[in-house]
Specification:
CATH superfamily of the largest domain: Nucleic acid-binding proteins
Radius of gyration: 25 Å
Distance between the termini: 93 Å
GO biological process, one term: translation
Order of helices and strands: EEEEEHH
GO molecular function: mRNA binding; structural constituent of ribosome
CATH class of the largest domain: Mainly Beta
Function: Binds mRNA; thus facilitating recognition of the initiation point. It is needed to translate mRNA with a short Shine-Dalgarno (SD) purine-rich sequence.
CATH topology of the largest domain: OB fold (Dihydrolipoamide Acetyltransferase, E2P)
Domain S1 motif: 6-74
Shape: elongated
Helix content: 25-40%
Number of domains: 2
Region (Disordered): 112-131
Strand order of the largest sheet: 1-2-3-5-4
Number of helices: 2
CATH architecture of the largest domain: Beta Barrel
Strand content: 25-35%
Largest sheet: 5 strands, mixed, barrel
Length: 131
């Protein structure tokens, strides 16, 4: 049975490169999971997520006219997500993430400022005497 776009199938990792992983599907055809489709988080090295001969679920995201198959591991998880679950921190809106970042940054800057002021105030070295 040939694979179709949108289908979720199992396959075996047959090769890993800098840009992704090749996965052999059940009917003997091979597709590519691009590095951006390996996981929801940032993937610097595919080897951190996949090993040769791993059996993985993949979603067929496109088939080019010349027969190249693009696959996604990440999108298999999106399909199986429940809509009634509580949002995780990664699912905060951009504005909420920005607000949290600004608050954390201000707190860190205050800590640094206090630390620097306490260092300046102690000891007599580093201070100039005005004559």
């Amino acid at each position: 049975m040939p694979v179709e776009v949108g289908q979720i199938v199992e396959g075996k990792v047959t090769g890993i490169t800098k840009f992704g992983a090749f996965v052999e599907l059940s009917d003997g055809v091979t597709g590519l999971v691009h590095i951006s489709e390996v996981a929801d988080s940032f993937v610097k090295d595919v080897n951190d997520f996949l090993k040769q001969n791993d059996v993985v679920k993949v979603k067929v995201i496109s088939i080019s006219p010349d027969g190249k198959i693009s696959l996604s591991i990440r999108k298999t998880k999106e399909s199986s997500n429940n809509s009634h679950r509580k949002p995780k921190q990664e699912e905060l809106s951009f504005e909420d993430k920005l607000s949290k970042f600004l608050k954390d940054s201000e707190e860190r800057l205050l800590d640094i400022k206090k630390n620097n002021e306490s260092k300046r105030g102690s000891g007599s070295y580093g201070k100039r005497k005005v004559l």
